Amino acid sequence: MYLPASAPDPHPLDPLHVGEVKVASTAILQHLGVTTKDVRFKVIDLYEPSKDETLKYIHHGAPAPDRRCRAYFHRLKSPILTIAIVNITKGVVENSYDAPDSQGPVDWVEYDLVHKACLSHPKVLEEVAKLKLPAGSRIENDPWSFGTDDHNERRRLFQCYMYLALSDDPQANHYSIPLPFAPIFDGHTLELIDLQRLPTGATDEIDEETQPWDPTSAVEYSADLLGPDSFRKDLKPLQVLQPQGPSFTIQGRHIQWQKWSFQLGWNMREGPVLHDIRYDGRSLFYRVSMSEMTVPYGDPRSPYHRKQAFDLGDSGFGLTSNSLSLGCDCLGHIAYFNGIRVTSSGDPVIMPNVVCMHEVDDGIGWKHTNFRNGQSSVVRDRQLVVQCTATVANYEYILAFVLDQAANLHVDVRATGIVSTMPIKKGVHVPWGTTVAPGVLAVNHQHLFCLRVNPSLDGRSNTVVYDDCIPVENEPQLDPFGCAFKVKQTQIQKPGGYDLDLTQNRTFKILNESKINCIANKPVGYKLHPVPSQMLMMGPSTFNLKRGIFTTKPIWVTKYRDHELWASGEFTNQSREDTGLAKWAARDENVKNDDVVLWHSFGVTHVTRTEDFPVMPTEKMMVSLKPVNFFDINPSNDVPRSNQNENKSTLHQNDSSCCSTRPSRI
Amino acid sequence: MYLPASAPDPHPLDPLHVGEVKVASTAILQHLGVTTKDVRFKVIDLYEPSKDETLKYIHHGAPAPDRRCRAYFHRLKSPILTIAIVNITKGVVENSYDAPDSQGPVDWVEYDLVHKACLSHPKVLEEVAKLKLPAGSRIENDPWSFGTDDHNERRRLFQCYMYLALSDDPQANHYSIPLPFAPIFDGHTLELIDLQRLPTGATDEIDEETQPWDPTSAVEYSADLLGPDSFRKDLKPLQVLQPQGPSFTIQGRHIQWQKWSFQLGWNMREGPVLHDIRYDGRSLFYRVSMSEMTVPYGDPRSPYHRKQAFDLGDSGFGLTSNSLSLGCDCLGHIAYFNGIRVTSSGDPVIMPNVVCMHEVDDGIGWKHTNFRNGQSSVVRDRQLVVQCTATVANYEYILAFVLDQAANLHVDVRATGIVSTMPIKKGVHVPWGTTVAPGVLAVNHQHLFCLRVNPSLDGRSNTVVYDDCIPVENEPQLDPFGCAFKVKQTQIQKPGGYDLDLTQNRTFKILNESKINCIANKPVGYKLHPVPSQMLMMGPSTFNLKRGIFTTKPIWVTKYRDHELWASGEFTNQSREDTGLAKWAARDENVKNDDVVLWHSFGVTHVTRTEDFPVMPTEKMMVSLKPVNFFDINPSNDVPRSNQNENKSTLHQNDSSCCSTRPSRI
């Protein structure tokens, strides 16, 4: 799979390919003067070239900048994370430094080591024995990033939440039987630090002694465990055909579809990333990505107070991406893209099919009927979906970038998977969540995402503004009947966090002030359709907030600088403070008519329901970026009108035989 | 098409059928002792039986209540609207009364009469002559409901907005050339009341004299006018196949699909209505419908200050529904339902295919992967869509009720069509809207909808509550790290309007307090996922607000009473006050543990863009009703897992031939 010499050069923003990973790990080992036995690699990922260099390459035919990667690794004898920037083109380490105060993200090897250490530790087994479990049952654990409740903690810790599975079915739902203790292990030494017992009553108090397991049956989702008689029988197949193939073309990672083009990036942390997004040749966005996501839990009882995952920074949507399978994760004509990760010894591993791309029909895109003669024009809303699904232990996220023919870019986020479950005594209910099965508490929590948008609307100098719709009041001369309203525009001139205001229909827009739409006499722009959400409930004194400032405001604006990609900073695992937006948004610098970044924080406060168990139906959120006076007319005015010759729909014959001459009883 | 004697009896909530319309109009003529020449019928529509009677029929096998209709008509010699309630079963008028103070909705005959009167009136033609139009051009007009700016106006008035079409193409876009005058006609006498000239500058001022037309080309959407070279060439067909047929069954108007069942109602005013909605045999909602929609415009210049359509009350989503066509308005396996209307002489007219029903795939419904072994379960999100599209002059609404397998009921509203256009001098821009083409102003406006939900969650006695998520603050004993939050529930005990509060994640829920989910120890319920929206900007002294109180609060709760269906009251055309929620929500009566109605007002403030012209891409809004501790587990846990055997997706082969051994450049 090594890139043959005859292949075209990679685009500067292409993910690493297999050969490059090996070049990088080899360079690092040479640089350190060690062998693979001395080092555990965690991450080797593209280190994106500077925007200056990349734009020269894209727009002016300058030579491609050198390919570089960023590597995270440990020397085996030390818990300290090392970061190296490697020039892959030259095969040399350009920079290397330790981060003794930070914890890197989790890697699969480490996760596996902790998982096994927990399951085999004598003290854990001793505790398990007290449960007096029936034969055939099986203990499981999910090592969780420890979180933060102490400014001085520097060990790399994992809290292993423990569960019971009642069968060996590969999809037996152990989350249905949470056990009342959660050992803490040191991820570096694999030592047991504490065998923390969990509260199972209404208060913080712990039972004096671990009690024998109170037998209960698991709530299963495994089709094999449920058995064929458990399924509804009346779901008929629905298939999507594209007899002439798809409307997209793929050259390397360059995608073209319906006047759109972009480079499909991918990395361990963010999963799919869209670069250099254009419509009809005009530049729209330099980079659009999911930047971070944090899940604080609302239960004050230890250790739950510490539960706050940063699912991008602590592990990564790329690292945890599923290998997607045909006919399951997408429907229709599907293109797949692989990802790549590094083994602990520095070898590349291809992650097959971590991104899928396909077209969907989303109903009517636009329609008008001339009522005088009944003549109609209908355009369907064809969309291109670029999707990944990430499994972060119990939970799943589905992230999709969705393009449509009206030049809208949507970010479709779905939360699914299994809610994090904690043990609770039968019959006890606490205010911190919902009992979703006997003995199973699903604690209320928030999911707060941060989307990062680096616009380049017709050029690099853009401005973020917001428009408020405000009634004209007390101006009887101008507005005698009191019906008038105006749009008041406010320019954002300094970096910072900004509020939505639904009462004023506040709309954040990105404008290119030097490019005027001559018809509207307004600057060309794109507007953000946000997901208005409750922000973080935890206050300014909490670690929850200090670790992720992005959760406190829905809108952030910063001035662009290379490599400022991750809202809460580079290292979120056991972080004590935010080294991302907290720093960048506090800089006193110009963001008007400049290279700016717009960040949107949004999410759900998830008050759990019985319906969320065993696997929760997707909770959908959609952020959109829509043109506003960017084009002169509806960009989808040129889409061929919908017609039966191509759509080949079928007409349903009414089932009511007695009514065959009387359609639908009329 | 008359109902044969052998056909099963209609369900009490079925729309009228053809025979019934004729029975009703005949009974009215007999009652009045007149012939069809003396009367103009406007509406004959089902008058729904009382809920008491209907529930006895549905649940206790009581005989079907008599079929009744409500008719609106004029005696030709009088402008006064008469309302009659006709017992169709008995063929007699049970009640008949005049509404001298109200205007009924528009009907097609009246619309046509006004339209023609305007186009042929000598004074209008005289004004047109001043435009010195080129040969081959054609004048058009849209008669608009007059609106209200005077408490004493009792004439039935129409303001005819005038346009120019440059070709005889049936889809020539006359909205692209608005003309600077708007005659006002009396809809009863067809007399010209005023030939109002329109402001075309920055202020209210009118040109001294109508100027010759300043030639401009129209922005067209007609495929014939655009010509084949105007269309993108790279859109490939996408087809939806259901080789084993659909998953629904239809008996008369009774629909069953994936554990759901409902009666599909339909009427002239609301279009499709869902009655007696159940899931897995359990009662959920007695009636769900779009109740009203109003569009106030934000331009204070006369006559625009009066523009405020009530598109359900003034005309009706049923009356203006398009006849849908296969392969255009839906894609896949489509069932159609007809509607029915009455001619001015009392004869029934079938409106073919005004509602379509089909299944769609909306991506992943839920997914979980056991990361230990990569084993995945995926359920796709199959949905049933019941849809209509309504053309209200220039504008289109798409209303769809969408059911899914997780027992969610969604109401999907899309706004499309052509924005209302007004003339503006070239080069002039006003703060009230956007110039969307040279000489064409699209004024900013709001679309405010009101959805009506009469729940019956496991019975008729339900309670509306709202839950706020509130941090636990300043309780260091309980919450030492400040991470805890609680759900605070407030019961709604009195009718009225209520606010959303995103800062507290306020969630409105309908509960059956007498039915406890034993697992969660909480009452069974459904929650509303609203569309948080800016409410009406016009203040309490304006007619805009007085005519539709529902626009001022997102949530309303009233006690159920028969026939209280329409948020702004029965007659909205030229209404001066709200006779709906304004009255019902002001009653001092119990709504706790009672038969309650939940109303949700939502919409968009539409600041127009060049991209909205000539036909605007759909603006989508989605309201959802989702179970909350109503079921014991995820209702879609029994959906067969997604699999390629049934889905038959196809794998895309990478286009980059040079990279054929290197998938996606990795």
Automatic annotation (TrEMBL), chains A, B:
The keyword Nucleotide-binding does not apply. It is an enzyme of class 1 (oxidoreductase). The keyword Transcription regulation does not apply. Contains 1 topaquinone per subunit. GO terms for biological process: amine metabolic process. Its cofactor is Cu cation. InterPro entries: AGAO-like_N2, Cu_Am_ox_TPQ-bd, Cu_amine_oxidase, Cu_amine_oxidase_C, Cu_amine_oxidase_C_sf, Cu_amine_oxidase_N-reg. Its EC number is 1.4.3.-. It comes from the Eukaryota. Topaquinone (TPQ) is generated by copper-dependent autoxidation of a specific tyrosyl residue. Homodimer. Belongs to the copper/topaquinone oxidase family. This is Amine oxidase. It comes from Penicillium cosmopolitanum.
